[in-house]
């Protein structure tokens, strides 16, 4: 009976959903090799649960929040191991490219970097995105159906920004490059959906009503922006 006790406990754990997957046990002994040493130092401070001076795949896959602003991080390519990540604050670093498609992000602040590429494809649960103060020439939001807040001022956005797939009532602050910031240079595809509020740069040109044919709009000038109240 005594010998059978461990087996019984294992069965009870499995029945309660507490037994670990066999892959989890293997992942305890698979260690990450970090490309970016600044990000590695942050992870060792925050997520080295067993204190062995290394981050295992097991530890990485249990991280839900990463908050590493202004730490001189130049690459977050190692985030591909943080597959359960829900919240990321990496503002004020030295990033030029960011791919978070392997995560479960719901909240992302990657503002004030040097991003020329941001990939959020497939993140259907992403509700908040701040990517302002970068050099993004384009932003693909086709698969971000839950996006309710979008902040992307001071980028180099060219052409059109399609938010028709985002959440109804999207609140957004959007501008083009500071060097080319007249309202007439900005195209926002909103003809078939209602937007709760959008801000665009307040340049010398008036807000072109042809771009917002469905809105009975009231524009309020505040600083560099016109705020559109729908």
Descriptive report:
The chain has 230 residues and is an alpha/beta fold. It is 14% helix and 20% strand. It contains four helices and 13 strands. A nine-stranded mixed β-sheet has the order 1-2-4-6-7-9-11-13-12, with no helix packed on it. It has a two-stranded parallel sheet with strand order 3-5. Strand 12 and strand 13 form a beta hairpin. The radius of gyration is 22 Å and the shape is globular. The C terminus is likely disordered.
Features:
230 residues, alpha/beta, 9-stranded mixed β-sheet, two-stranded parallel sheet, 4 helices, globular
Ordered list of secondary-structure elements with their pairings:
Elements: H1 4-15, H2 22-27, H3 37-47, H4 57-60, E1 65-67, E2 87-89, E3 97-99, E4 107-109, E5 117-119, E6 128-130, E7 149-152, E8 160-162, E9 171-174, E10 187-189, E11 197-201, E12 218-222, E13 225-229
Parallel strand pairs: 1-2, 2-4, 3-5, 4-6, 6-7, 7-9, 8-10, 9-11
Antiparallel strand pairs: 11-13, 12-13
């Amino acid at each position: 009976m005594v010998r059978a006790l461990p087996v019984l406990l294992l069965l009870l754990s499995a029945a309660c959903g507490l037994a670990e997957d066999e892959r989890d046990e293997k992942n305890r002994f698979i260690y990450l090799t970090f490309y970016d040493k600044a990000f590695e130092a942050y992870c060792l401070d925050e997520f080295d649960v067993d204190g062995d001076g290394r981050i295992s795949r097991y530890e990485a896959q249990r991280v839900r929040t990463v908050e590493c602003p202004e730490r001189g991080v130049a690459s977050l390519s190692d985030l591909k191991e943080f597959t359960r990540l829900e919240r990321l604050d990496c503002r004020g670093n030295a990033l030029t490219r960011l791919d978070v498609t392997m995560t479960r992000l719901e909240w992302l602040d990657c503002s004030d970097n040097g991003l020329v590429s941001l990939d959020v494809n497939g993140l259907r649960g992403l509700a908040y995105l701040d990517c302002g103060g970068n050099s993004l020439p384009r932003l693909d939001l086709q698969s971000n159906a839950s996006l309710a807040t979008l902040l992307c001022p001071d980028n180099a956005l060219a052409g059109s920004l399609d938010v028709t797939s985002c959440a109804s009532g999207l609140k957004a602050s959007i501008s083009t490059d500071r060097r080319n910031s007249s309202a007439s240079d900005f195209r926002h595809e909103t003809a078939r959906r209602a937007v709760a509020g959008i801000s665009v740069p307040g340049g010398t040109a008036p807000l072109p009503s042809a771009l917002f044919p469905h809105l009975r709009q009231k524009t309020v000038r505040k600083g560099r922006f016109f705020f559109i109240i729908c």
